[in-house]
Amino acid sequence: FPSSIAVLTTLFRGVGGGGVRGCPPPAPRVVRTPGGVRSEDLPARADVPTVSEGLAAGGEQEGRKRLTAWLARGVDSYEERHDDLAGDATSRLSPYLHFGAVSAAEAVHRARARGGAGAEAFVRQLCWRDFHHQVLAARPDAASDDYRTRHDRWRRGKEAEADLRAWREGRTGYPVVDAAMRQLAHEGWMHNRGRLLTASFLTKTLYIDWREGARHFLELLVDGDVANNQLNWQWMAGTGTDSRPNRVLNPVTQAKRYDPEGAYVRRWVPELAGLEGPAVHEPWKLPGRQRARYDYPDPMVELADGLARFRRARGQD
Ligand SMILES: Cc1cc2nc3c(=O)[nH]c(=O)nc-3n(C[C@H](O)[C@H](O)[C@H](O)COP(=O)(O)OP(=O)(O)OC[C@H]3O[C@@H](n4cnc5c(N)ncnc54)[C@H](O)[C@@H]3O)c2cc1C
Question: Rounded to whole angstroms, how far apart are CA atoms 241 and 33?
Fold first, then answer.
């Protein structure tokens, strides 16, 4: 804690100046933090996920440049392509919006001025952002408690912990789940479709508490945002605002629909890069000798067993 004051003091020195009419007031020489707040050492560079290419620079200038480029070149195909995992055809504006480097109001205004179906679809996604912020403002407890409880008795104990670890590390044996988890670890960002299907896998197929998943995401996401993270997790866990709380996303069906050629999986799961086309989504179906060539785990759970466990837990049997 004293060292953080020293760092802040050093940082603020030299910024100073000011005091002139119309200029910001001078920066404080010392910032006092509330008692009991401990500081932590800055993480080593190697412990920080590599930020996506093109996202390495922050700030308003960079954010607006990205918004301008997105409206000029990307947004028109957004409606058809936003779920294309390999195509990476979304704006990637989320970190800038999260940190306030780009204003959502400006993004909406400029998208509307551009017009078209893609721009409207983009504005609809921005509405989700505001929606979650408003829900959290009305129900701050939803950051940690079920928004609408289903009285889940989430799995706990050693076996659940081992499953959670495998999910975090991207070795569930379901290639599209592992690809998305590895993208998160490597880039600090994950495609929205990946977020949906990894969250469904954790909370429904593995029946592990959404809070565990939300915590991991918040630790790694460069756009990590309490309202949008916790409430999207709750949406997928069926404890939030989703009107179909028991929906389960099948990772194989999702993979075939949103990564039909398997390019996203091959990018993030190099062990399977030798498999062509959609075969990469189901390596367990390969004939024995061919399967043995790939150093990649078998599925950690049968999807049908996971589904049956979830339905039993939710009293749907
Ligand atoms: C489990 C889970 C956790 C998530 N955690 C976060 C988070 O911590 N921070 C965060 O900003 N988003 C979160 N999202 C929402 C969404 O995945 C990201 O906003 C989106 O992937 C960011 O990429 P983009 O900027 O290219 O999005 P685009 O598709 O280009 O969308 C434009 C903007 O709209 C907003 N938006 C899009 N989809 C959503 C959504 N479902 N909910 C709320 N806002 C949305 C974002 O501000 C985004 O930048 C989460 C989604 C899920 C399913």
Answer: 37
Residues of the chain falling short of pLDDT 50: 1-19
Closest CA to ligand 1's atom 18: 192
Cβ burial 137-153 (10 Å sphere, 16+ → b, else e): eeeeebbeebbeeeebe
Given 110, 138, 166, the domain boundary residue is: 138
Question: 232: Cβ below 6 Å to ligand 1?
Answer: yes
The verdict on 72 and 212 lying in the same domain is no
Token pair listed for 180 = 């998305």
pLDDT recorded at residue 167: 98
Q: Are residues 24 and 91 in the same domain?
A: no
Number of domains present in the structure of the chain: 3
Neighbour tally for 162: CB within 10 Å? 11
Residue 157, pLDDT score: 97
For ligand 1, atom 37, which residue shows the shortest CA distance? 125
Amino acid 2: pLDDT: 39
The CB of 221 under 6 Å from ligand 1? The reply is yes
Range of the domain at 116: 60-138
Do residue 67 and residue 123 come from a single domain? yes
Q: What is the DSSP string of 122-183?
A: HHHHHHHHHHHHHHHHH-GGGGTS-SS--------SHHHHHHHHHHHHT-SS-HHHHHHHHH
Q: Is the CB of 82 under 6 A from ligand 1?
A: yes
Q: Are 103 and 226 members of one domain? A: no
The reply to whether 144 falls in a domain is: no
How confident is the model over 53-66, as pLDDT tens digits? Answer: 555 678 899 999 99
pLDDT value of position 48: 64
Domain match, 113 and 229 both: no
Pocket perturbation via mutation, ligand 1, pick of 70, 232, 234, 239 by most ligand atoms within 8 A of CB: 232
